[in-house]
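Re: the request from the purification team.
They wanted to know what the chain is likely to look like in 3D before they choose a buffer screen. I agreed to run a prediction and write the result into the notebook, where they can find it.
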Amino acid sequence: MPTRDLTMTDFEETVLAPGITLVDFWAAWCGPCRMFAPIYDAASETHGDITFAKVDTEANRDLAGAMQITSIPTLMVFRDDVLVFSQAGALPAPALESLIEQVRALDMDEIRAHIAQEGDDPAAD
């Protein structure tokens, strides 16, 4: 499945959707972004059940700011309405494949329980 370009208009709807969504924050002038692009695109073709999206940080500065992007490329992974991974830097293909498999293996009920517990913990504030 080809990657989707996201803007402020459709970002939230896309990442809140059921399933796994990877979002690559990038810019045309960024060398590491250009090196990561073919790896990301190849993974999107291999994993048709996952949404692969891109945010051009130059064209969508408001969205990049809202997501606190300070370095590019930054990869964020959402699963079932939960941000489960965020990291700056280009990943090599094997690392991206490993990340996808780890996200597939997550117990989302356990993660939601952990998030709820942290929300109830006054020490976490």
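For the purification team: Strands lie at 4-5, 20-26, 51-56, 74-79, 82-88.
Please add any questions underneath this entry.
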